[in-house]
Amino acid sequence: FQLTGTLALAVFTAALGSLQFGYSMGVINAPQKVIEKHYARSLGLWPEGDPALSENSTRGVDMLDAGQHPEVIMYWSLSVAIFSVGGMVSSFLVGFVGDLRGRVKGMLMVNVLAMAGGLLMGLCKMWKPHIMVISGRAVMGFYCGLTSGLVPMYIGEIAPKAYRGALGTLHQLAIVVGILLSQVIGLDFLLGNDSMWPLLLGLSGAPSILQSLLLPLCPESPRYLYICQGKVEEASKSLRRLKGEYDQSADLEEMKKEKEEGEKEDTISILSLVGVYRQQLLVALLMHLSQQFSGINAIFYYSTDIFDRAGVGYPVYATIGVGVINTIFTLVSVALVDRAGRRTLTLIGLGGMCCCAVAMTVGLNLQMGYSWMSYVCMSAVFLFVSFFEIGPGPIPWFIVAELFSQGPRPAAIALAGCCNWTCNFLIGMTFPYIQEFLGSYVFILFAGLLLVFTVVTYLKVPETKGKSFKEIAAVFQKGHKKVPANTEMELEQLKSATDA
Question: What percent of the chain has pLDDT over 70?
Answer without folding.
Answer: 87
